[in-house]
Specification:
The protein is α/β, with parallel strands linked by helices and 275 residues long. Helix content is 51%, strand content 13%. Helix 2 packs parallel to helix 12. It starts with a helix and ends with a helix.
């Protein structure tokens, strides 16, 4: 059983939902990434989504684009990102790590070589934003050989037929993009998210994570009542950006935001256990 499946199974037994924070590897500096990953876990993360910096992150809004630029200014490469996960694993063997990024760096390394190196680094899943499921079969087969989960995005505009196709090819969980736009943009339409998650669950038993637009404890709690996982990225990156000059305050602000989300998400399940 994969770490991701084990994580969701354990959470389900206690009625809790997964909190999945995103940070960009190498932001604000490569030598801080592993420490930030450990801070995320301590603050309540169940799964870490680690962004591979890319020069043209088309799905990301200005906040994460700026994070990629800061990381690339320090020449953060895919090889370095894999090394970061290796270092993280020296102290943490149980928290799943999902790489989120774009196909170009993987193509440059070669999919087979990337999968081999990712497996050695104990990476659990890969989400490649610009790899459509229709063109992913070769990569999927390689990832299966190395027991790496393949995670795909489902958009508000995705048709029912394509939702089924995506779910059939996915493993670990599926990621529903709650907004028509880029990361960190717009306002959540909760009723639309609820309906779409229900539609996905009618055709798949995989956990459903929801991201894009989750900014605070209230929105995290609301999404946790609908989906199996809450993904937060831009809100955390804003804390990094706002406190680059003070590492201590940066870590405190990240911890405060994520801990508040964890507490809000767990409120109902804690009350049920007490009752």
């Amino acid at each position: 059983m994969s770490r991701i499946q084990s994580c969701f199974d354990a959470l389900a037994k206690t009625g809790r939902k997964a909190l999945i924070p995103y940070i960009t590897a190498g932001d604000p500096h490569p030598n801080q990434t592993v420490a930030l990953m450990h801070i995320l876990v301590k603050a309540g993360a169940d799964i870490i989504e680690l962004g591979v910096p890319f020069s043209d992150p088309m799905a990301d809004g200005p906040v994460i684009q700026a994070a990629c630029e800061r990381a690339l200014a320090h020449h953060t490469s895919l090889h370095q990102v894999l090394d970061m996960v290796c270092e993280f694993r020296r102290r943490n063997e149980h928290t799943p790590v999902v790489l989120m990024g774009y196909q170009n760096p993987i193509e440059v390394m070669g999919t087979s070589e990337f999968a081999r190196a990712a497996s050695q680094s104990q990476i659990d899943g890969v989400l490649t934003v610009d790899l459509p499921v229709e063109q992913a079969e070769e990569a999927l087969e390689i990832y299966r050989q190395y027991a790496i989960d393949s995670i795909f995005l489902i958009a508000p505009t995705t048709s029912p037929l394509r939702i089924k196709k995506i779910c059939d090819k996915s493993s670990g969980f599926v990621y529903y993009v709650s907004l028509r736009g880029v990361t960190g943009a717009g306002h959540l339409d909760i009723s639309e998210v609820k309906n779409k998650v229900a539609e996905i669950k009618r055709v798949s038993d995989l956990p459903v994570g929801v991201g894009f637009g989750i900014k605070d404890a209230e929105s995290a709690k609301t999404i946790a009542s609908i989906a199996d996982a809450v993904v937060v990225g831009s809100a955390l990156i804003r804390q990094i950006e706002a406190n680059i000059s003070d590492n201590k305050i940066m870590r405190q602000s990240i911890t405060s935001l994520l801990s508040s989300m964890r507490e809000a998400m767990d409120g109902d399940s804690i009350n049920q256990e007490v009752a």
